[in-house]
Amino acid sequence: MDATDARLAAQYEAYPYPERDPRDEAKRLIVGSPSHLREVDHWIFGARRPASRPLRVLMAGGGSGDGTMMLAQQMASAGRPGEVTWLDRSAAARAVAEARAKQRKLENIRFVSGSLLDLPSLGLGPFDYIDCCGVLHHLPDPAAGLAALAGSLAPGGGIGLMVYAPHGRTGVYMLQDALRLLAPDSEAPPARVDIAKRLWKQLPETAWLRRNPWITDHLDGGDAGLYDLLLNPRDVSFSVPQLAALIEGAGLRLRCFVEPLRYEPERYLPDPKLRARIATLGATERAALAESLAGNMGIHIAYVTRDEAVAPDWDNPAAVPVLRELDGPTLAKGLPSDGVLRVTFDGIRLGVPLPRLASAILARIDGRRSIAGIGAELAKNGVAEAAFARDFTALRQALEPLNRLLLAAPE
């Protein structure tokens, strides 16, 4: 632990992050990426790991528990065996996370106090899946942190990562520089928060963070969100090439960015001459181009594996398609008449064309029917097998890159 790391540890004792009230667990479950159970099944295990097989999970830097509550609750609700290990060095964050788990009556969580850098000596692993969300960019040596996680993976396992990205955080680092002058880290955290709030109220309209609508932690994240964003003693962002190098350096393989569609530059550029040049780029270069073009990515979420990833088998008729946090029949009824699904990613509007049978297929996706079962039902309504196969493939190609249509784990 260096001096900066000591200040970081003190920050999370004063302001457990994110700011959460355990009583809110009675009203809602916070859901996101990485570590949604359906995403883990699909992107990490290729929808081939049986749901009946116990899943050993590590939340490395679990904080106040958003990811822990989500995954543990999803496992409990689905009757999935296994255990989620929460690991963090903040006693204040642990108190919040334990209170949230108690509110939900979750018994599949194990709480361990410590640093992910100590994993080799803690003897907790190996783990089938590891979540490391918002942690690596605060470490003295992110490469050492990711290497420690990689060394704790079981064969066939994977990691869900979230790190800050530079372009979408435009304005953040300027204000961090200003607050180092106005509120030095030698002062107590409450005093620094007070100065930061005063500065925000009087900030000139030309300040870039005022013009950045995608960063809101200082507005709706409470004192913990403001401190973490503007007063954090160590905050490093990673461009796509930098993150790719970090992943490769740890001996890991990138499975996908979330949502994959956002990292496809041709989605932003319809010009055929530009697309022809895009086609000559490698995967990392394409993703880097998309990041530079969009300019609104404040974070990168990635799923990575140590072993070569196994792709989901969409050609398996027994596979069961699922929608991530969407209801098939409701989505089917709401499809636009022109067959183009409009999606918005932090201000960028994109149209995703859907096939003719999209509504009929989506109405039958319920997490139980197999691909063959859906096709058989449509065949009774006069839909030819070839037409169903063509349109199901087109629907998958449209919605999988949105991280919406996935395959469920086999029973």
UniProtKB/TrEMBL annotation:
The keyword Chloroplast does not apply. GO terms for molecular function: methyltransferase activity. SUPFAM superfamilies: S-adenosyl-L-methionine-dependent methyltransferases. InterPro entries: Methyltransf_12 (IPR013217), SAM-dependent_MTases_sf (IPR029063). It comes from the Bacteria. GO terms for biological process: methylation. Keywords: Methyltransferase, Transferase. The keyword Disulfide bond does not apply. Residues 60-158 form the Methyltransferase type domain. This is Methyltransferase. It comes from Teichococcus deserti.
